[in-house]
Amino acid sequence: xxxxxxxxxxxxxxxxxxxxxxxxxxxxxxxxxxxxxxxxxxxxxxxxxxxxxxxxxxxxxxxxxxxxxxxxxxxxxxxxxxxxxxxxxxxxxxxxxxxxxxxxxxxxxxxxxxxxxxxxxxxxxxxxxxxxxxxxxxxxxxxxxxxxxxxxxxxxxxxxxxxxxxxxxxxxxxxxxxxxxxxxxxxxxxxxxxxxxxxxxxxxxxxxxxxxxxxxxxxxxxxxxxxxxxxxx
Amino acid sequence: xxxxxxxxxxxxxxxxxxxxxxxxxxxxxxxxxxxxxxxxxxxxxxxxxxxxxxxxxxxxxxxxxxxxxxxxxxxxxxxxxxxxxxxxxxxxxxxxxxxxxxxxxxxxxxxxxxxxxxxxxxxxxxxxxxxxxxxxxxxxxxxxxxxxxxxxxxxxxxxxxxxxxxxxxxxxxxxxxxxxxxxxxxxxxxxxxxxxxxxxxxxxxxxxxxxxxxxxxxxxx
Lengths: 233, 221
Description:
The structure holds 2 protein chains of 2 kinds. Chain A is mainly β. Helices cover about 10% and strands about 40% of the residues of chain A. Chain A has one helix at about 1-25, and strands at about 30-35, 40-45, 50, 60, 70-75, 85-95, 100-110, 125-130, 130-135, 145, 160, 165-170, 185-190, 205-210, 220-230. In chain A, strands 2, 3, 6, 8, 9 and 14 form a 6-stranded antiparallel beta sheet that branches. Chains A and B meet through α1 and β1 of A and α1, β1, β4, β5 and β12 of B. β1 (about 30-35) of chain A pairs antiparallel with β13 of chain B, so a sheet runs across the interface.
């Protein structure tokens, strides 16, 4: 009998210890938290396309601010019947990032002509115009480096070749689609946005300018596609 | 064998069990108030016990909070249970990394509020004097997001308000029971943590908030 009592007492004691362990009170509790911010970049339309100097043609698919960039432009007639100096399409881009960025471009140009007088990539001027960092939430102190020559229609960016008579864009810096047959950096810079929500309306505005000098090109049609890519290396 | 041989362990057990009565008496206790939840996260998670009988140990991973998370806000609700046989106060203290880069996630970017104080059940003590959430914490920060002049999301209260030990709640006795951690012998409130995905500078951030319950200011029951 004494043995039974001893066992019961021992069991009660052990049970009590486990009860203490299970129901022990504490006066503190902790919440540990963590979060991650990865590099983020985006490119969107910066607004409507401006087409000038055209004869016929028009903006087939216009840009819509803050929507994905998917613009289609018909430059119209670029033979000598177009008496304007240039046909120019100004396509606004809007870039945003939380890290240093690189904007690159690759272009393809195809013409139906069969001679050296057809339109080639070097005949389509390209450059990035004045880049602006303005608006609430934009890192206004950031610096951007434009790798292009700017507006390709500027006098300094092209001239008639005295040997051939053909108007040519300069090649010392990227000034035409000929310089972008492979993906090439057009612009790079510091992070664009301060810590603001994605709903913030501002960003880096970049005018992408395309131009064609009307000339005695071989008759036919030409299609050019420029693809912009932004990365955060 | 002598009877005295058994008297000693039996007496020891009796004394131990008697003393357990004091241990069980609900002096001051904080525990899990139930399963925590997370919404609006991209790759985030929250872990914690669903049982009010377990300690409060919660781990929150807010996940990706750059603009690649297209949700408006990442919100975590952590239920916390409190019990006491006396007037009490709950304090919060934040520790953890800070970011030198002003564009990186700061403590001011993590909204922190408390609400939904409610009884656990039959053995919750009902007193005349109220339980009080302290300013500025009595809010759901997810419902009170504003944009400051710099364009950054802000909240009525954030982790930055609890960098020094700060009282967030106090009141009269919480529990009727004499046993520890019953499922119905105290009160539960929600601690709410939120982050608005923004163009933060890249990196990772971690912080810990410790809740402590102790004897509080005079508040008779």
